[in-house]
Design brief:
Length: 144
């Protein structure tokens, strides 16, 4: 009996919906990363993208624990001298709440071509509405 490896053409993708309202950022991001990788499927293969499409709604209502709302800092650098840009969690949430979840999930995906392909299947929306009703996504509940 040989080991089963999923092939690119054999993978069936499902659309999954996560409601982030009153959920902790890390727990939502961790679940989304597992679903994007396909780690919860029996045919999971590390070198093949076996994951599903993940739609996250209500990104503006996500919460963090402790003092992270004021202490957590997002940094990026332009590559030029003095080009360091830093923003707190509150500032990023006020500007674009989707970026917080996307940043957390992408940090949990592989840092290679496969990880970038997995990241393209993540759809995050600030409000409760999303344009993927036609795919009829199945809602995933987080344990409280």
């Amino acid at each position: 009996m040989g080991t089963y490896y999923a092939k690119k053409g054999e993978v069936t993708r499902e659309w999954l919906l996560i409601d982030a309202e009153d959920q902790v950022l890390g727990r939502v991001a961790s679940l989304a990363a597992q679903l994007l990788k396909g780690k919860l499927k029996p045919q999971y293969t590390p070198h093949v993208d076996t994951g599903d499409f993940v739609v996250i709604v209500n990104a503006e209502k996500i919460r963090v624990t402790g003092a992270k709302a004021t202490d957590k800092v997002y940094s990026r650098h332009s590559g030029y001298p003095g080009g360091l840009h830093q923003e707190t969690f509150e500032q990023v949430m006020a500007k674009d709440p989707r970026r917080v979840i996307e940043h957390a999930v992408r940090g949990m995906l592989p840092k290679n071509t496969l990880g970038r392909a997995m990241g393209k299947k993540l759809k995050v929306y600030a409000g409760a509405d999303h344009p993927h009703q036609a795919q009829s996504p199945r809602e995933i509940k987080l344990e409280a």
